Amino acid sequence: MMENTLDLPKDKKPYSENDLGRTDILPSYRVDLRNYNEKEYNKFVKMNRINNWAMVSWKEVGRPFEVKKYSSDRLLYEKEKGKEIRPFTSWKYFNKAFHEWFIKDVPTEMKEQKQAFIASLKTFNPNQIRKTIGELAKIQLWNYAHRIQDGVWDPRGKRALFEGLDISKPRILFLGAAEGYEAMQLAAMYPGAEITMVDYDEYCKSTRFEEFPKTYPFLGENQSTGHQKVYYKDDFTIDYVVDDIRNLPYGKEFDIVLSVGLLEHFPDAYKPEVMEWHRKFLKPNGYAIMTTPRKQLRSKLYYNVMADVMNHTYRELMTIEQMGLYVYENGFDIKQHGYIKVHNGIVAKPR
Ligand SMILES: C[S@@+](CC[C@H](N)C(=O)[O-])C[C@H]1O[C@@H](n2cnc3c(N)ncnc32)[C@H](O)[C@@H]1O
After folding, report:
1. Is any ligand 1 atom within 6 A of the Cβ of residue 53?
2. Where is the signal peptide (predicted)?
């Protein structure tokens, strides 16, 4: 087992262009400098299958699936306070819970959970046994989804979604940036980028982004040679703003406005406003780039088992057709669309 790069000295860059094609499974996450081969590409990336969005209708594609199983923290909060949790508070719960999983030493924890399960069997206490089975299921699923499959970060999939944009040295605005992963992946692909990350949960700047490993390699492009190049967090120009998206003072000054897992947290009545957030800060020829989790059986299972980690906020799972309709109906032309392991992705321009 390789050392977790989280534990390496901060200034050390463990991967270089000599490592292209390499992937390593570290205790907390996978490092992946591979490109897709054709078989993998066709299995996990499906791009641009709809020719004319004007022909797609809600009647044909149905509605998104609402995830109704909430975290026990949310349920307890609402029971104690006697009122519905506010979105801002629910995001604070979510970000803390999610981050705690990203920093786990997964193999060690799997071993401990197995031992706890065996010990619980000896108690003959059904509640105790049920609880340890639940914990074991969560760590096993997290291991598979994040560490083995790399479904959350999915650098190869994200690169496939984001490639081919007509921009250089872009200014990128990341709405609801959390740890900021996708803006960094874009900045590796389009060198010279200036990133503005925005999240109203201060914990995202102080902890999720701050603790994102400085040793994690992003595969991108070398501007001068056109070859692939490995970048790290500290190579990028990043300004992290803690504020509500509704308060942002910017004009139409960004080449890319990005969100990852934002649209699906708003019921339909609010979706036009969310789409407007993606329009109002874009330069005239700029790109809105959005991803949302896919409506598929394995994702439903994931959000069910991981409810305590993931489900503090209103959440929908949708198909690429449903997501595309929200984007198209709210005044955007869809330039690229597709889905990767667990997310849909759309690159669009305001009409
Ligand atoms: C689901 S997360 C994004 C997914 C992310 N990739 C992750 O790993 O958690 C959405 C983020 O948007 C932020 N957010 C939601 N509404 C916001 C608003 N009105 N202003 C600023 N940030 C907001 C939340 O705090 C949260 O960190």
Report:
1. no
2. none
Of 135, 98, 113, 102, nearest in space to 27 by CA: 102
How remote is the CA of residue 329 from the centroid of ligand 1, in Å?
23
Annotated domain spans of the chain: 28-42+52-63+152-350, 104-148
Q: Helices 126-142 and 106-121 sit at what angle, rounded to 10 degrees?
A: 160
Residue holding tokens 């056109």? 226
Q: Residue 66 phi/psi, 5° resolution?
A: -90, 130
How far, in Å, from the CA of 268 to the mean position of ligand 1? 18
Pick the atom of ligand 1 nearest to 98's CA. Answer: 9
Cβ–Cβ contacts within 10 Å for residue 90, how many? 22
Which of 29, 91, 243, 306 for mutating ligand 1's site (highest number of atoms within 8 Å of CB)? Answer: 91
The reply to whether ligand 1 has any atom less than 6 angstroms from the CB of 274 is no
* Mean predicted lDDT score pLDDT of the chain: 94
Residues of the chain with pLDDT > 90: what percent? 89
CATH number of 28-42+52-63+152-350: 3.40.50.150
Cα gap 124→175, rounded to integer Å: 49
The per-residue pLDDT for range 285-334, each reduced to its tens digit, is: 999 999 999 999 999 999 999 999 999 999 999 999 999 999 999 999 99
Phi, psi of 349 (to 5 degrees): -130, 145
Residue 280: predicted pLDDT:
97
